[in-house]
């Protein structure tokens, strides 16, 4: 098939048989109709519709070298820097359509990570079985255009202890039994984006490991409706707005994260892509993290565009859009937004090939710089937007007040700004700005998604060659006659490149 429509994706969710998804303590019968998860389904659906919509079709479609068919880019293996750039551009464009996280990127980054890691094991150590299994799985995913979640973050228990040292042995997902036909796993993955509304989950280790942690060094893929898998959907800011009307409930699409619990789940060997390869766990994490950090340039700049547009509209509604201090704030927001985006494009254009046959990866330094900017700039963009919008963003009347016939005329009189816009216009834009600029998708995820800021700082420190920079300075100071090499940036090779 190769390509599914958004409606076919939704229908596929209805056919799942054993899925256990809990929201606010209750089992969900149908995620496609449940008020808490339906907005998340609609956001995920946009990634499928993108392959058919005229304004995104060219970015969202690409020919697969594995099945020889046109596929959705969200299940594509990058074939060069152009693909990495197209990824960032597609994410920015889709953010304009959904106003939230569309949740499919993590599974996409997981596919590309496992392609590289299994390919390296085959090329360098002759362990071809993992690569062969993964390529067959990849073909299955592409032929069926599956919705995937990527699951890396373990619950981790006592953070100062390694997996094998934990008092709770299940604090990291691990293998509890080896069988002739597969393995049995136990544990949980936390903060997994979009997991309740996917077809399958790709599970990966979350950190570098030692030989004693071998049972935790495992990567595999399973359908979400595999027996023993439970999803507990987490809370978000203003999440009960999803049960409310169309104004207070803006945007109409939301994302979600969940705790995925594996209670002695069986995984057949053909779906195990990495096992007891503890020496390469850190490398796997580095490859995935850099992919995901690069992608944030697209989705967060796209949401930034929405916030900038909403702020400008509210300034117009108040009659202050042409005032110098407002123009200065808007210009600063644009500068911050485009800086994040530019860094992601740099990480893409400076990508590198890690396998003899493809395996294109981002520039790890620039990817970490991208994410570190994302960890800071959205908070400043949000602050400036709130400055322009005014206190009404946190105190405005509700949609129910506006619909009350005894109050509507009064609200229309006292909430309206310039006559060009109605009071309802102002409330709609205020709610849009509030729900996006204060959301988990734009703020908290910007800090902790793809690793905390400290994780990026550690990577930046490892990748920058201080000794080489010092030699450049010593040479200019006349302290040495050492010759410079051809490399422009004083960067060290990453573990993945070594």
Automatic annotation (TrEMBL):
GO terms for molecular function: oxidoreductase activity, acting on the CH-CH group of donors. It comes from the Archaea. Residues 282-478 form the HpaB/PvcC/4-BUDH C-terminal domain. The keyword Flavoprotein applies. Keywords: FAD, Flavoprotein, Oxidoreductase. Residues 5-273 form the HpaB/PvcC/4-BUDH N-terminal domain. This is 4-hydroxybutyryl-CoA dehydratase. The lineage of its organism: Archaea, Thermoproteota, Thermoprotei, Thermoproteales, Thermoproteaceae.
């Amino acid at each position: 098939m190769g390509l599914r429509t958004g409606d076919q994706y939704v229908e596929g969710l209805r056919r799942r048989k054993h899925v256990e998804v809990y929201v606010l303590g209750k089992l969900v019968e149908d995620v496609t109709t449940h008020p808490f998860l339906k907005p998340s389904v609609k956001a995920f659906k946009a990634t499928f519709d993108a392959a058919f919509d005229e304004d995104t079709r060219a970015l969202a479609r690409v020919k697969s070298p594995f099945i020889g068919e046109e596929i959705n880019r969200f299940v594509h293996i990058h074939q060069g820097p152009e693909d990495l750039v197209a990824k960032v551009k597609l994410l920015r464009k889709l953010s304009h359509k959904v106003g939230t996280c569309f949740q499919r990127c993590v599974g996409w980054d997981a596919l590309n990570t496992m392609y590289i890691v299994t390919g390296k094991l085959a090329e360098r150590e002759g362990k071809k079985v993992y690569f062969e299994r993964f390529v067959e799985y990849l073909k299955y995913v592409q032929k069926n255009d599956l919705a995937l979640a990527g699951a890396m973050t373990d619950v981790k228990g006592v953070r100062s202890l390694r997996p094998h040292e934990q008092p709770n042995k299940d604090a990291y997902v691990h293998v509890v039994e080896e069988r002739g036909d597969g393995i049995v796993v136990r544990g949980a993955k936390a903060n997994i984006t979009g997991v309740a509304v996917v077809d399958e989950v790709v599970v990966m280790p979350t950190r570098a490991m030692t030989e004693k942690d071998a049972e935790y060094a495992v990567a595999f893929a399973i359908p979400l409706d595999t027996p023993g898998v439970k999803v507990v959907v987490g809370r978000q800011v203003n999440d009960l707005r999803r049960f409310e009307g169309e104004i207070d409930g803006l945007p109409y699409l939301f994302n979600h994260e969940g705790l995925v619990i594996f209670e002695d789940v069986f995984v057949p060997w053909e779906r195990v892509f990495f096992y007891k390869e503890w020496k390469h766990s850190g490398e796997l994490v580095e490859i995935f993290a850099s992919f995901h950090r690069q992608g944030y340039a697209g989705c967060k700049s796209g949401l930034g565009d929405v916030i900038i547009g909403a702020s400008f509209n509210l300034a117009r509604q108040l009659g202050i859009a042409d005032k110098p201090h407002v123009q200065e704030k808007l210009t600063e927001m644009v500068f911050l937004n485009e800086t994040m985006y530019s860094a992601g494009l740099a990480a893409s254009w400076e990508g590198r090939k890690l396998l003899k046959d493809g395996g294109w990866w981002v520039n790890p330094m620039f990817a970490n710089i991208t994410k570190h900017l994302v960890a800071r700039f959205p908070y400043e963009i949000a602050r400036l937007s709130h400055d322009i919008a005014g206190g009404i963003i946190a105190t405005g009347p509700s949609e129910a007040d506006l619909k009350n016939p005894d109050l509507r005329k009064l609200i229309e009189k006292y909430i309206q700004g310039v006559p060009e816009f109605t009071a309802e216009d102002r409330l709609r834009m205020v709610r849009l700005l509030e729900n996006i600029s204060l959301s988990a998708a734009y703020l908290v995820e910007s800090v902790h998604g793809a690793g905390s800021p400290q994780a990026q700082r550690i990577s930046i420190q490892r990748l920058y060659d201080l000794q080489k920079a010092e030699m450049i300075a010593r040479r200019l100071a006349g302290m040495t006659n050492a010759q410079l090499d051809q490399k422009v940036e004083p960067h060290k090779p990453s573990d993945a490149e070594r």
